[in-house]
Amino acid sequence: MKLDNFIHKKWMIRAISLASLGKGFTSPNPLVGAVILDKKGKLISEGFHEKSGMPHAEAMAFDNLKDDATGGTLYVNLEPCCHSGKTPPCVDRIISSGIKKVFVSIKDPDLRVAGKGIRLLENAGIEVNLGLCESEALELNKSFIYKNLNGCSYGVLKWAMSIDGRVGLENGKSKWITSENSRSLVHKIRADFDAIIIGGSTLRNDNPILTTRGSKKVEPLRVVFTKTLDLPKKAKLWDTDLANTLIVYDSSTANEENLRRIPKNVLIEKIPSDDPKILSRILAEKGCNKVLWECGPKLATSAVKSGCIQEFYTFIAPKIIGGKNGMNPFSDFEFKSMDEVINLNLKEIIPLDRDVYLRSHS
Ligand SMILES: NC(=O)c1ccc[n+]([C@@H]2O[C@H](COP(=O)([O-])OP(=O)(O)OC[C@H]3O[C@@H](n4cnc5c(N)ncnc54)[C@H](OP(=O)(O)O)[C@@H]3O)[C@@H](O)[C@H]2O)c1
Fold it and tell me: Candidates 3.40.140.10, 2.160.20.10, 2.40.50.140, 3.40.50.1000; correct CATH number of 3-141?
């Protein structure tokens, strides 16, 4: 690699690592970091998008400037915006700064930008280099990109199972399959998500809390998906001091009389069917880029079948649960041949002190 390329890559990796500091806080916005060098190549500022509603990465970097940026270079992992939202367009700020060169990793899939930001910079006489650290930038913002292209939240399905592939006893009990360490890792993992989804049956059987246990200041939205609205009068999820709870129900099958049991602080939304894709779309509209499905076998199977799941997190504990009708992570996909089964790409195998944590994607 030529020295120049090595240096450019170094600064873009710096922008990407700054961007990742916003993980879990920027939705519906992307993760963006920016680095500014002066005309001699000295670092004069940097910034990142901390939270939705806060300044964009480029704006933060310009606010933090320690020296004149005229003739300088900007590194940013996503195409700068050219529309006014909660904050003014970054493109205008770049042009007025006198910066001469901009390195951008990827275009913004948001149709309000989608290449327009780059064109405006070029029209203003700025040299724009697109594609530096493209794969790292795509990986960092995969949920933002997925949501913008598909109109649905990026879904991750998580389950914990025994070494014989069981997620619970025949009687529905599943506390606890994995070790305390694995469970506290799950609390931390939740911090990277905008919402956590379960089905009505998991709520009735497990009465979970579904929080990050304080790893995140604003806890992810807790979502209960139900066809019946047969939900208990008392549940930990009804205490919304810790985190908001949303019940989404299928109005074609639910008994709406049951709504009387639900406290007023719980958010409620009805949809016309039990299609998980509609739920995923609603959550995307609410600004959720990335959602974690922590449901049992029935809803997990429906979510996979309807294309709501892009990644799979599996915790495996060295326990044998057995049972003729023990609970599997999924119910029947009705595959008739091995050619039909779902083939995943294993991305990571992480040994924990006692359990194993696998990350795969479709
Ligand atoms: N080991 C693990 O990782 C793990 C994780 C989660 C759950 N579990 C266990 O799983 C058991 C519950 O399993 P489950 O499969 O009934 O899970 P679930 O998470 O409760 O999902 C099923 C429920 O989701 C609702 N639902 C809404 N739309 C649906 C659709 N299109 N397809 C299917 N369900 C839909 C229904 O609620 P209504 O009945 O209210 O209409 C349905 O009963 C519990 O015993 C729990 O302990 C284990």
Answer: 3.40.140.10
